[in-house]
Amino acid sequence: MSSTLGSPQFTAAGAERAGGPGTLAGRTVSRVGFGAMQLRRLDRTAAVALLRTAADLGIDHVDTAQFYGAGSANEAIGAAFTARDDVLVASKVGAEPADGPIPLRLAQRPEQLRAAVEDNLRSLGWERIPLVNLRRASHGPGLRAEGDQVVDLDDQLAVLTELRDAGKIGALGLSSVGADELRRALPAGVACVQNAYSLVSREDEDLLRLCRAEGVAWVPYFPLGGAYPGIPKVVEEPAVLAAAGALGASPAQVGLAWLLHHAPNTLLIPGTADPDHLRANAAAGALVLDGATLAALDAVPSRSGDIERG
């Protein structure tokens, strides 16, 4: 964070766990976690060092996927932590690496989900993944299922609950889903929902409320927007810039802090390959937003309807 921003208004609440404690898959974790996608930009030594820095900052929730760097992110996580460490690692299935402008393709069929879990286990070097999120393709920005990739949710849950019963998965989550899918999946046990959501893209507000009512953690991806054409950027919003200036924080920190203030079941997984950026993300969990600031941010209109599909 730039020294020109002055003295940020942080509390010590997140000193032990970044962002303070939250609940995920029946465990207490830091509300500010770490998204591992950008680890693919680093060599193994630098990636492991960044993960250890995250742990030193009080981050004990890491979100990954086998398709992040074709397994390289998982390999770094497995080198940085053991399955016995007090770090909850969540991975995703439902897609796989691909060449082209979009570096992944859907892998939704039950046999593909089973293979993806095994691939995750191999690259992590573990016998059990604490949490696995099923990335669907029916909601939010990004790919849509076609042909044999159109698979019934019940068929997908059947194979994943079988793997959970076998001890290879600790808990199940959902990603890129709507409220109807969450309701269908609740009897199987759902630990979290990961959907695109930010201050400026709040089309899933009803789904967030449903998660809160059902005790399901809300783990937004694209928490600062801007990842796809048509998604507005939180850091360019005038109300965010004004709050950042008043608080002596960065606009990104304000956007992340708003998410934590907005709903108590929210956990964050911002990603970076830069240690300074990592420290700023962790510090955002202790940023205080007073009532007037929250009211100004809450009044920012959601513009998620402009999102283009990737």
Q: What class would the helix/strand composition place it in?
A: alpha/beta
Gyration radius from CA atoms, angstroms: 18 Å
Fraction of helical residues: 25-40%
Assembly state (oligomeric)? single chain
Strand content: 5-15%
Tertiary shape: globular
Key features?
11 strands; 310 residues; TIM Barrel; seven-stranded parallel sheet; alpha/beta; two-stranded antiparallel ribbon; 10 helices
Summary of the model, kept short:
The protein is of the alpha/beta class.
Can you tell me about this structure?
The protein is α/β, with parallel strands linked by helices and 310 residues long. The protein has one domain (3-301): Alpha-Beta Barrel (TIM Barrel). It is built from 10 helices and 11 strands. It has helices at residues 44-56, 72-80, 110-124, 153-165, 179-185, 205-214, 238-247, 251-262, 275-284, 291-298; strands at 21-24, 27-30, 34-35, 61-63, 88-93, 95-97, 104-106, 131-135, 172-175, 192-194, 217-218. Strands 3-4-5-8-9-10-11 form a 7-stranded parallel sheet, covered by helices on one side. A two-stranded antiparallel ribbon has the order 1-2. α6 links the parallel β10 (192-194) and β11 (217-218). α1 (44-56) crosses α2, α3 (110-124) packs parallel to α4 (153-165) and α7 (238-247) crosses α8 (251-262). The longest helix is centred in the middle third of the chain and has 15 residues, at 110-124. It is globular. The model is unreliable at 1-15 and 306-310 (pLDDT under 50).
